């Protein structure tokens, strides 16, 4: 065995030395590189993991928010539709009322106009009556003035009869 | 205006009654008083009042007769005959009456038998 190792050119001492060197290097690399690297990788993995979890959570929340949003929008739409419907009803009611009031006012205006027209007509008739009366009076006066004696005589005679009652 | 025509007239009549022999003197004094009081513008009214008071004293009435035109004598006489001797009759012509007569007694009673009144009554 020893001969074989000799023939293969292996030097025990050198091998041992190299083995020790390798071990030292291994220990050094383990403590200086491998462990910090593993630690860093572990931290990164955890970070990524938490990031993924966070992203999932965020996605879930986003989804929930989306649902909530849809619900709220739906509710708001319903409410808006209700408000619009109510407003339409009220508007319709108000329009109906306004139309009624307008109709009443229009009737009042018509009545008033009719009354004014009637008053004007009456005034005009009265004015015409007065004018006609004045004209007839004028005609009578002119006629009497042409030959007043007879009328004068009658009126004075009648006055003579009445005067005793007055005294 | 210190006094009304009525007060002037009544005072003058009372003065005349208290001393009838001094009628002329009283009349002059009365005229002076009116002038002094600055009431000369009231003179026509005072005279009117005096006329009325004097007629009343005699037991008569003041009769104002308005004709539309000069009346026929006979008609006028018939009308005059209706009044007493003591009455003071004042006749005037008022063409506005158109026809007929208007009689005012003592400024209180009125008999309006004129055509204009009748027409006015018809054509109110």
Integer-rounded radius of gyration of chain A: 65 Å
Main pleated sheet of chain B: 4 strands, mixed
Helical segment tally of chain B?
5
How many domain units of chain B? 2
Q: How is the quaternary structure best described?
A: heterodimer
Most residues in contact: chain pair? A-B, 25 and 29 residues
Q: Give the count of helical stretches of chain A.
A: 3
Helical residues, percent of chain B = 40-55%
Give the low-pLDDT segments of chain A. none
Low-confidence stretches of chain B: none
Number of strands of chain B: 4
How would you classify the helix and strand content of chain A by structural class? mainly alpha
**Helix-strand sequence of chain B:** HHHEHEEEH
As a percent range, the share of helical residues of chain A equals over 70%
What is the compact description of this entry?
The complex is a heterodimer of chains A (167) and B (124). In chain A, 95% of the residues lie in helices and 0% in strands. Chain A contains 3 helices and no strands.
Topology:
The complex is a heterodimer of chains A (167) and B (124).
Chain A: H1 2-7, H2 12-146, H3 149-166
Chain B: H1 5-18, H2 23-36, H3 43-58, E1 62-67, H4 73-80, E2 88-93, E3 100-105, E4 109-114, H5 115-122
Parallel strand pairs in B: 1-2
Antiparallel strand pairs in B: 1-3, 3-4
Helix pairs in contact in B: 1-3
